[in-house]
Design a protein that fits this description.
Length: about 270
C-alpha cells in the first residue's frame, strides 16, 4: 500500500496498529494526533495544510467536527500559530492584551498575557468547577496563583468583578478573605474581621481590626484546642505579610474568646 503523506504507522503496547499524523509549517514539526486508520490520518494532514495556507485567517470558532477530523485542541494551536506567528503547544489563542485558553469550544478561559509563559507549558484540566494543572506531580488549583486558598468560597472569600467566572485576568479577581477561618464583615461604616473555628459547630474566636490579626487569632485558637486534646488537624494560616517577630508579638497578645479558652470536649467529660 502506498504511503500517504503526513501519515506514520505505529503499534500500541498490545500490538494493535494505529496511525499518527503530523505537519511541518515554517520549519516547525507539529503532531496532529493519533487516528484509527491511515485515511483519517491523511485527511487530518490535508486539513491542517489547508488551514495553515488559507488566504483567509481562520479562528478557533471556525472549527466544525462535522467537516474536519482535526481535534479541536490542534485546531486552536494551528490557528494561533498561523495568525499570531507563535507556536504554543497548549490550546491558547493570543489577543493583544490577553489570551484565551480553550478547554472546549464552549469552555473558554481568559487570562492576562503575564500568565502566558506558565499556561503555555501547563495544561489546564477541569473537574466540575475545579480547574487545576499538574505541577511537579501534584494537582494545583489555578486559583492559588491569585492567593486564593483551597477552602475559599466564591462570592464570600473572592469574587469575579464582572461576574464571569471564566475571566481570570488579575483585574477581574478580588480576594475578600485570604485566610482560613476569617471573614470580612461590615457594620455601619466599620469593617472588621471575624475569626471562627469549627469544633462541634462554629465557635467565634473574636472580631479584629485586620485580617492578619484575625488569622493569627485563628492559629492561636487552633493551638489551644489541640493542647486541650481536641484531635483535629486544624489548618494553620501562613501570614506572609508578617515577619516572624511581628507574628510572635501578635500571637502572644491577641485576645481569644473565653469559650475557646475554657472549652472542654463533651466526649472527655
Amino acid at each position: 500500500m502506498k504511503k500517504l503523506p503526513g501519515v506514520f504507522s505505529s503499534r500500541r503496547k498490545n500490538g494493535t496498529l494505529y496511525y499518527r499524523s503530523s505537519v511541518t509549517y515554517q520549519g516547525k514539526h507539529i503532531s496532529l494526533g493519533s487516528f484509527q486508520n491511515a485515511e483519517e490520518a491523511h485527511l487530518a494532514y490535508s486539513q491542517a495544510l489547508s488551514l495553515l495556507h488559507s488566504p483567509i485567517p481562520l479562528m478557533p470558532g471556525d472549527h466544525s467536527p462535522k467537516n474536519t477530523v482535526l481535534p479541536f485542541t490542534k485546531w486552536v494551536i494551528l490557528t494561533n500559530y498561523k495568525n499570531n506567528g507563535l507556536y504554543i503547544k497548549t490550546p491558547i489563542y493570543l489577543h493583544k492584551k490577553f489570551f484565551h485558553y480553550y478547554l472546549s469550544p464552549q469552555d473558554v478561559l481568559t487570562f492576562d498575557t503575564d500568565d502566558l509563559f506558565y499556561y503555555s507549558s501547563h495544561s489546564i484540566m477541569r473537574r466540575g468547577n475545579h480547574l487545576f494543572v499538574a505541577d511537579y506531580g501534584m494537582q494545583v488549583n489555578i486559583l492559588s496563583r491569585y492567593g486564593i486558598k483551597n477552602f475559599a468560597v466564591p462570592g464570600r472569600d473572592y469574587v469575579f468583578i464582572n461576574g464571569d467566572q471564566r475571566d481570570f485576568r488579575y483585574s477581574n479577581i478580588q480576594v475578600i478573605n485570604a485566610y482560613h477561618g476569617v471573614s470580612r464583615e461590615k457594620q455601619g461604616n466599620s469593617v472588621y474581621y471575624l475569626a471562627k473555628i469549627h469544633i462541634n459547630g462554629d465557635y467565634i474566636i473574636g472580631r479584629y481590626h485586620t485580617p492578619a490579626l484575625a488569622a493569627t487569632a485563628y492559629n492561636k485558637a487552633a493551638d489551644i484546642l489541640n493542647e486541650k486534646g481536641i484531635e483535629k488537624n486544624f489548618p494553620r494560616n501562613y501570614i506572609e505579610e508578617l515577619s516572624s517577630e511581628d507574628y510572635n508579638r501578635l500571637y502572644s497578645t491577641v485576645m481569644i474568646s473565653e469559650r475557646i479558652l475554657n472549652y472542654a470536649d463533651p466526649l472527655r467529660r
